[in-house]
Write a structure and sequence with these properties.
272 residues; mainly alpha; Hypothetical protein af1432; 65% helix; EC 3.1.3.89; magnesium; HD/PDEase_dom
Length: 272
């Protein structure tokens, strides 16, 4: 990705966070943004990855015993087929998928505390932020596992669906914040039926929090950079001075490619 081209591309993505779904508006209901909708689809894809088995593959992928279990107990068909076709991996039931997605959906309505505190109205949701981080992960260089980063970016703030967006200004210690979010991720894993994918989501969150792997470090850099891009866009749209977000991230981005993105962004902001 050419550094000079990456920042305008991100600005284009951001326009989706101000586009509401027209059918919701027409019905007079609370309108999620397009990015919130895309985030929801992304979490659904992660959840269903171990569940999708086409009937075309059943003869070779599923044992006769499993096929009999499916036909005799339709309520467990999805879980049984998925386990048989994925070498024993457990998959959430349809009811558990819905429970999990209902939790994820709360992020569409959870606003980012930092923007709200600065008087930005309306401001993005946590789902908006997580979606663009997922897209940003696609632009990462090949020295990290992009697919792993995409999944990590999508779920890195998932605990906030239960505990809310706890910012440094909320007066909550780092230890207490981690405890609340860790407990929330345990509840989210259980909502997914303590399935293979539920455990994967919790593991991705813990990996991000620990920040030791190359992928976790990259996604943490993306978290800071995406916030800077959003701050610059809000400054242009609202005239509110958001310098504090540029000061708090100074020298914090470590990956050389993202350092190039940051330099370009700061240069563009300085020329405004």
């Amino acid at each position: 990705v050419v550094v000079g081209d990456s920042v305008p591309l991100l600005h284009a993505f951001t326009r989706l966070s101000s586009v509401t779904l027209e059918w919701c508006t027409a019905k007079g209901t609370l309108s999620p943004t397009t990015t919130g909708h895309l985030f929801f689809l992304a979490t659904l894809c992660i959840t269903s990855a171990s569940c999708f088995v086409t009937t075309h593959h059943l003869p070779s992928a599923v044992s006769p015993t499993a096929q009999h279990a499916c036909s005799s107990n339709p309520g467990k068909t999805l879980n049984t087929v998925a386990m048989a076709a994925t070498g024993g991996e457990s998959a959430p039931s349809p009811a558990q998928v819905l429970d999990f997605l209902n939790i994820c959906g709360k992020l569409k309505k959870t606003v980012r505390t930092g923007w709200k505190r600065c008087g930005v109205q309306p401001c993005e949701s946590v789902a908006d932020h997580s979606w663009r981080m997922g897209v940003l992960s696609m632009l990462l260089p090949p020295d990290v596992d992009r697919n792993h980063c995409i999944k990590m970016a999508i779920v890195h703030d998932l605990a906030e669906a239960i505990v809310g967006d706890i910012s440094p200004h909320c007066g909550v210690s780092d230890e207490e914040k981690y405890k609340r979010e860790n407990d929330a991720m345990g509840a989210i894993r259980e909502a997914a039926g303590d399935s293979t994918v539920g455990r994967e989501i919790q593991s991705l969150w813990k990996e991000y929090e620990q920040g030791q792997s190359a992928e976790a470090k990259a996604v943490k850099d993306l978290d800071k950079f995406e916030m800077m891009v959003q701050a610059e866009e809000y400054e242009k749209e609202t005239g509110i001075d958001l310098e504090q977000f540029f000061q708090s991230t100074k020298g914090k981005i470590k990956h050389p490619v993202m350092q190039g993105w940051e330099m370009e962004l700061r240069d563009q902001r300085g020329k405004r």
